[in-house]
Amino acid sequence: MGNIRLHDKSFRPFIEYDKIESAIDKVAAEITSDFKDSKDVPVLLCVLNGSILFTAELMKRLTFKCEIVCVKLSSYIGTQSTGEVRDIIGMTGSVKGKRVIIVEDIIDSGRTIANLVKMMEANGASETKICTMLFKPGCYKLDKKIDYVAMEIPDDFIVGFGLDYDGLGRNIKDIYVLDENMKYYILFGPPGAGKGTQAASMAERFNLCHISTGDLLRGEMAKGSELGLKAKALIEAGELVPDEIVEGMIENKFDSVKGFSGFLLDGFPRTTAQAEALDKMLAKRDTSVTGVVSLMIPDEMIKERIKHRAAIEGRADDASDETISNRIKTYHEKTEPLVEYYKKAGAYNEIDGTGTIEEVRERINSLMETL
Ligand code: AP5
Ligand code: MG
């Protein structure tokens, strides 16, 4: 699945159809179990238009006798909930004396739901339950509990499976999320150049998610996972781990991390194959590398800095001269060709990595402001 475009905006894949179906199975089973022995005929209140698909899918899974009534609300304008209560425009049937299950596509602040519940009471419903396909727990402001939730999501703007962006997207069977112009920076440089040192302040200043493949791999090694065991011998010899492993870790982060303006990739890509894989991942997201920030220091300084760090951090790949030399060799052979790769792409920016940490940080900050 790649990105889709609706009007002026790009949306990236978020929840696949299969996952939606299983979530509806689950919620339908909960409702059935609560209502299956009832003598009355409960009403599903379908909240138009967004809830059409969900209500239909839900209803065909319910095995007890039930009716449907639809209600129309005024709609969102654009991608922001206006903060106004949406007006209720009309109902297609009576709920008097009946138990009602309100079926919503999505609940965020809960303002609409509060209004609907009041409306059901005013129309004589004997009981009101709430069911929603999507729930944003981070936005919800009511005390009233949502009785049935198929899936919880963060506070993002989404389309598909009944939900729209200014009228479009309701017919898409998967759910997509608005792809804000995410930035993808590469922090490039030889071992010991200061990538990890500079990454923290860059990430904070520009609201970026810092991903260090080296740190992720060391995390796996510390856990003793299968992946960690595979990586250990290679890392301790100063060799690279297989491309597929790091590519998988990176894509996983792109798909799961929320709340940042972009990513700061530290130690990835490290081979031409990885750079090509990254280009493909970003093309799927309708974008490309925003900029490469390359920290350059001479080989002799690499050795000094790593020896200094060895005394403080005790990283296994800092321990022996042989491993350090092999990392430098691996860098020149496999990683340095990326300088040309990104020069050709017009994304390469080199920074003098010598001098104090603060001096290097200043150079990075002035460059970042221009990217
Ligand atoms: P990784 O962890 O990425 O190691 P690296 O690239 O060798 O880089 P380092 O973390 O050693 O250096 P750094 O640039 O972050 O420098 P730092 O800020 O710490 O990768 C480790 C291994 O994992 C690889 O060898 C490989 O096996 C595997 N791997 C990782 N990614 C992979 C990938 N994509 N594909 C395949 N395999 C992968 O600074 C170093 C020291 O210098 C510190 O002590 C710091 O305090 C000091 N320092 C920093 N700046 C200054 C300064 N300006 N002045 C004085 N001291 C400074
Ligand atoms: Mg590092």
Characteristic key phrases:
371 residues; Rossmann fold; 2 domains; 6-stranded mixed beta sheet; 5-stranded parallel beta sheet; elongated; binds magnesium ion
CATH-assigned homologous superfamily of the largest domain: P-loop containing nucleotide triphosphate hydrolases
Order of helices and strands: EEHEHEEEHEEEEEHEHHHEHEHHHEH
CATH structural class of the largest domain = Alpha Beta
User: How many structural units, i.e. domains?
Assistant: 2
Shape: elongated
Largest sheet: 6 strands, mixed
Q: Which fold name fills CATH's third level, the topology of the largest domain? A: Rossmann fold
How many DSSP H or I helices? 12
Structural class: alpha/beta
CATH architecture of the largest domain: 3-Layer(aba) Sandwich
Identify the strand order in the major beta sheet.
5-4-3-6-7-8
Bound molecules: BIS(adenosine)-5'-pentaphosphate, magnesium ion
Mean pLDDT: 93
Strand content: 15-25%
Radius of gyration: 27 Å
What is the count of β-strands?
15
Low-confidence stretches are: none
Distance between the first and last residues' Cα: 29 Å
Residues in helices, as a percent range: 40-55%
Question: What does this protein look like?
Answer:
With 371 residues, the chain is of the alpha/beta class. The protein folds into 2 domains: 175 residues, Rossmann fold, CATH 3.40.50.2020; 188 residues, 3-Layer(aba) Sandwich (Rossmann fold), CATH 3.40.50. Helices cover 41% and strands 22% of the residues. The protein is built from 12 helices and 15 strands. The chain has a 6-stranded mixed beta sheet with strand order 5-4-3-6-7-8, sandwiched between helices. A 5-stranded parallel beta sheet has the order 12-13-11-14-15, with helices on both faces. A hairpin with a 2-residue loop joins strand 1 and strand 2. Helix 1 packs across helix 2, helix 7 packs parallel to helix 8 and helix 9 crosses helix 10. The chain is elongated and about 85 Å long. The relative contact order is 0.11. BIS(adenosine)-5'-pentaphosphate binds next to helix 4, helix 5, helix 6, helix 9 and helix 12.
